[in-house]
Amino acid sequence: MAEVNQEALYRIFTIPEAPDSTLGKIEKHLSENLMGFLGEHIVAREKPLQEIERDFEQANIPEDPQFVSEHTEFLLNKLVAHSVHTASPKFIGHMTSALPYFLLPLAKLMVGLNQNLVKIETSKAFTPLERNVIGMLHHLVYQQDAGFYNRWMHSAQHSLGAFCSGGTVANMTALWVARNRLLKPDGDFAGIAAEGLAAGLAHYGYKKLVVLVSERGHYSLAKAADVLGIGRRNLVSVATDENNRIKVDALRQACEKVQQEGGRVLAIIGVAGTTETGHIDPLAEMADIARDYDTHFHVDAAWGGATLLSNQHRGLLNGIEHADSVTIDAHKQMYVPMGAGMVLFKNPSLVKAIEHHAEYIIRQGSKDLGSHSMEGSRAGMAMMVFSAMHVIGRRGYELLINNSIEKARYFADLIRAQDDFEVITEPELCLLTYRFVPKKVKQALAGANQEQVERLTPHLNALTRYVQKRQRESGRSFVSRTKLTPAQYYHEPSVVFRVVLANPLTTEAMLQEIIQEQREIAEKATSLRGALHTEMRELGMIVSDH
Amino acid sequence: MAEVNQEALYRIFTIPEAPDSTLGKIEKHLSENLMGFLGEHIVAREKPLQEIERDFEQANIPEDPQFVSEHTEFLLNKLVAHSVHTASPKFIGHMTSALPYFLLPLAKLMVGLNQNLVKIETSKAFTPLERNVIGMLHHLVYQQDAGFYNRWMHSAQHSLGAFCSGGTVANMTALWVARNRLLKPDGDFAGIAAEGLAAGLAHYGYKKLVVLVSERGHYSLAKAADVLGIGRRNLVSVATDENNRIKVDALRQACEKVQQEGGRVLAIIGVAGTTETGHIDPLAEMADIARDYDTHFHVDAAWGGATLLSNQHRGLLNGIEHADSVTIDAHKQMYVPMGAGMVLFKNPSLVKAIEHHAEYIIRQGSKDLGSHSMEGSRAGMAMMVFSAMHVIGRRGYELLINNSIEKARYFADLIRAQDDFEVITEPELCLLTYRFVPKKVKQALAGANQEQVERLTPHLNALTRYVQKRQRESGRSFVSRTKLTPAQYYHEPSVVFRVVLANPLTTEAMLQEIIQEQREIAEKATSLRGALHTEMRELGMIVSDH
Lengths: 546, 546
What we know:
2 copies of one chain form a homodimer.
Chain A: H1 6-14, H2 22-32, H3 34-41, H4 49-54, H5 68-80, H6 103-113, H7 126-142, H8 146-152, E1 161-164, H9 167-182, H10 192-195, H11 197-204, E2 209-214, H12 219-227, E3 235-238, H13 248-260, E4 264-271, H14 283-292, E5 296-300, E6 325-329, E7 341-345, H15 382-416, E8 421-425, E9 431-436, H16 439-445, H17 450-474, E10 480-484, E11 494-500, H18 508-524, H19 526-538
Helix pairs in contact in A: 2-3, 6-15, 7-15, 9-12, 15-18, 17-18, 17-19
């Protein structure tokens, strides 16, 4: 037990950890060999969550201080050991990848500076830096000329966007702006910001506001519809084609229907890189529809937006430049640590709709970033994005992104070449879905009718779930899973493996190992396979057992 | 210019910065002597913002990569140099203080692990850890028994709170929960989350929802009222007494008025440590009123909540245990880096009102933290709070908090002892406001009538603004300023200095220096003082010039 007295407390604020202390050694290890540190300290084999919880069940804040070394040992054995090795090249199930080394010491610098970006008084140069970062991303999307950025990037009354903790807040901010602009002050009506949503609907004579997005839209949009008072039911899912892209005819019909019902389309949302399949909506066509219905066009490019950094592939996002607002997460394909979301606004005046002030900070006319953001106090994460863009450079990012897409194409080819795996959704960016299907089932599925697919799919789903779970638990590699409704299988809800190939350290050999491991796990699932076999026999899809 | 090729890119993900590189040296300096590093690299004298902006005006993402060393030099000279020395013991104007040393290497560890707390699959042990941290803060506020925490802390369907990027999101989350609970599903009505706010008001027959808070409430509450569709006008400010505490009679009357107008009180918000004056509302009496009107009682203890760690002072927050929800920021008086807000819920089932799921994560029945949070992907900041609570301990925190309050009392006494300064609001916690008033004015103000106060105050306001701005620019010390309506001065809007004395390294000698510096600046403000003098003469408050 450490001492509790003035002197001891003063020390923790003034005396650094010694280099040979436990924490000093960890820090050295992290600096010298991050991957080695993670590989050594994170236990591969999964410990049941209930057991981990036992180390985190004391609700009392400890009375007495603990020595830093002792506490660090606890963290190593109980927390780090049972963390997820998100930087591992075989952890390809989610959008978290490896980080460039230089960001680690820079992150420490950022934390040490402990700036608060809500206001100039606690951030100074960090405010222009963050505005610069937002400006650079704005330029990436909208490519305005230098005069535009000279005029607006550092203007107190304007913002080219807002830095957020993540894509969820970014999407929410975009819809907040759209909502407040639609129900703006008008005559006696002081605007929704002042009078509230119900008064706004009444004033403008709308029965409801509706947001339209493809059925592949991110769940944060439903959350935003809830938070903003619009209602989850009024986030209407529009059907997608066989490539998971919104059907523009269906979108237009949905807009018509809203009008016929006395509602108002608040926003149309294009998805640039769906979370589950990585596909990109036909943004240019959606922009046309948004114009026809005089509605806000938002593009959720949280994951796929970084593709704009690749001259080779940025055409995939054609039309994004017509969006009124765009969400991009730098902590996804820009290789920045967690906590770097952004929303960009085409028109620098849009943020007027959400402007707010207070007496002691974010005063009228100040350049305080807090006057146009949903969040209040925030750290200087923008520095991570700024540094990554400078040290990697656009050309560096282009290489990273092109490589990821090529790797996904390689993996799709590899899967197709197996007689017991099948690609479910093709990669457009570096994301694809697939599943294991025993050889005989794969052959039989090729010509199966709807009833057969309906009866076989639940068994295949159980098998996919089983393999995904066992593979995760074994700790050697990780793919995620989701449920899709593939057109080729009569839209039957199908569980699939989902991989995101953004980690530059993932090799082709590793991808081969991953499917081999899945095959081996599947082979051991005898009862699930037995049930599948029985079902096939009952369906008349297997005549003999030979 | 650095190279752009596969090999070079691979290196930034695999080869650490050498210890003798620019960044390596910075890291060493940070580790060995943070205060020295900050003191050495942050330029004291303020550079005009427009000049700083010139270093951050290139909206093009650079095509070519920059060497890390070169980029680091840029950061040092252009960003760090013109950052704010928030850890300085003479930076007493805002709620940001010095950080304990051990948190720096731990922050690097956190960033290196790069967990995403939205789901178990990308956070594993960090999920139980975060639930533990929320549980510890819940216990600090509500002091339930061990059985309570055993039952609820790790329950998939429940949450004792939510970890947020800051107090703003925490307050917003609390009101979101309150709103969705009030307009819950009922018969044919599927609830506000599904159907939206207007449908909810119509179903329940309320003309409007109203949130009541004292006129000292934080600006984030107005923002929350906007975002949630309630409307800023429906966040009603209730008058405060001479100590900036809400008048309970006025609160009760306000509740009556809402009902008479056909509205519904959505929530009553108590402030535990107002941002501008540090005072605490009479929480127990407010809880009674909330019960009488069957409304949600939220306490915004973003800043003052840490006072609960002091057995000597926690009585100041009596009644907080009756709150349905409480906001606490660990990045304020808990000495954790920026980005650690929390909202706590007395009843672990309250979060049902905002629960949401998706196919690929936060599935039904999972323990994924993302199902009960406003934000999506989030970093493992909870680890910073966990470690600080263990290494400092409750007794350590008590010492820190008691010392801060004593320091504030010392400073108030010091100001009172000057014949040219006056305390405007007394410290209840470690926050107080005061101003410089030339000796003759101070004497004259003692017996001044309302007209005299009304005419003198604008001149005093100008002087206070001038001194605050010059002192900030000189860079030796920083106090903030705000505008209050002090009862002792006929509620005339008065600009005041505002100080928060939470930095353990701030000494009494420094406080003496700070007011001496203010006095010297004020003495040079000859034209402002001349105008004040003329006004006094015209008011007949000075008979002769001797």
